[in-house]
Amino acid sequence: MHKLAHPEGEVATARAAATCNTIMVMSFGSTCTIEEVASSCNAARFFQLNIFKRRDLSALVVRRAERNRFKAIVLTVDTPRLGRREADIRNKFNLASRSANGPPIGKRIVAGRIIKESYGSAKQQQTFTIEVLWSKGEKPLPPLHPLFIKGRNLYRFNTMRQIGRPIIYGLAVKGECGVRRVIEMLRDELELTMALSGCPSVNDITRGHVITERDRTRSML
């Protein structure tokens, strides 16, 4: 959907990610083709894929991603049906069919997972996954994909996680340069917060470094 923000869309985002030495996860709903993004720069890329009722379509997409040297498939399995997004209904939001000729899937499945805050957005209310994982004592935390605006938010969530909407904002303001600036700002803010907290590495950030609203409430009891 990046062309909603800038004419170059995901191609500009891919180039910025490559310059910043980070990984772009290209969405199946991308407004650029797999081939366009793959040929835009030489960098590691992942591809996000939903499960289709027609499994042959999923297999076709995977093969396209493989041919274009995507390194991993990020399989989305948590949103089989979208909630009623009233804001989109009021705004008459509509996105034309994606420009890619088909869909992609990957050669190797890696033992990993990414947790995205799509459940809360589907319901238009938010229960942060991080609180659920912390309450269960899960460690280490898997990659998360909530809305990050500040580098200190990245610190709170225990590492350089996925960045979603801020990338779109930067893309809308200044294209590839805007995306690159957003990544640099978040990285700089994260490093500063780590330095002020005495954490030389993201591996040194623990649950004990973070105080949540729930912690404050408990301390007053």
Automatic annotation (TrEMBL):
<dbReference type="GO" id="GO:0016491">
    <property type="term" value="F:oxidoreductase activity"/>
</dbReference>
<keyword id="KW-0560">Oxidoreductase</keyword>
<dbReference type="Pfam" id="PF01070">
    <property type="entry name" value="FMN_dh"/>
</dbReference>
<dbReference type="InterPro" id="IPR056116">
    <property type="entry name" value="DUF7699"/>
</dbReference>
<dbReference type="InterPro" id="IPR013785">
    <property type="entry name" value="Aldolase_TIM"/>
</dbReference>
<dbReference type="InterPro" id="IPR000262">
    <property type="entry name" value="FMN-dep_DH"/>
</dbReference>
<dbReference type="InterPro" id="IPR037396">
    <property type="entry name" value="FMN_HAD"/>
</dbReference>
<dbReference type="Pfam" id="PF24766">
    <property type="entry name" value="DUF7699"/>
</dbReference>
<protein>
    <recommendedName>
        <fullName>FMN hydroxy acid dehydrogenase domain-containing protein</fullName>
    </recommendedName>
</protein>
<feature type="domain" description="FMN hydroxy acid dehydrogenase">
    <location>
        <begin position="1"/>
        <end position="221"/>
    </location>
</feature>
